[in-house]
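Entry 14. Structure prediction run on the chain below.
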Amino acid sequence: MSLKRSRIIVIGASALAFLWIITAETACKQAAQPPAPGEKGAPPAMEGNTIIEGLNDVTGTVKSAFGKYFYVSELPGFDFVANGKVENGDTSSLLGKDVKVKALFRRENSTFLVVQSIDVKEGTGYRNVFNSTETALPEECFNQKARTDYEELKITNITKSADWEGKSKGKVHGKLITGADGKMTGISILGDGNKELAKVIVDNVTEYADYYLKKLRLFDTYWLYLNIKESVPANARAKAKEIFHADLVFIGLY
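Output returned:
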């Protein structure tokens, strides 16, 4: 075989190898990127429930509900807000039922859908149980983008007021304390080994935080997002380990 022909064969083989590598890399990248909702190959649970800017039609089963809030299993990651009275009371009457919902989505509202109408499945048809023209979110809604405004409070000692004073917002990891009537009264802040570091007196709980507590019913410790208020007087902290008052605005797992 001539030297010239040998060089042609080597160059051709190299070109084919390079082409195969590029093709393989492209295929791998495409395989690593799941299809967007609504595209061919998207997860079945999302089919028909792709969320767009503006008015959306959603069908699903209500898995958690409290007050004006609920979510459906077919649309994880979104909370529905029904401003107004739902038939038979609040949204808890929808729990476990199949529903058709018309709701507004705005990108600036992150994970919220403002409900315009709700129809509940009965037999082979649906019956309307809610209508609204309200398009705004309640002030208490906790936008997920706000998480970064709530930095973790590093509680080192109940006597060190500087750990929390001067801060209007913060989050702590802990357990909820309830009274004999089941009403939330405080928070036990937990440190390493789930050892109690201190307590917070909870003055108010937003309806949205209460809704999330029910949504996370399988857990007993949480990250609790607080609007920090006045401190407990220094001479009263040692008895109950309570260090300040706060309003609870959100409950999460991180």
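Residues 3-32 form the longest helix (30 residues).
Filed with the rest of this week's runs.
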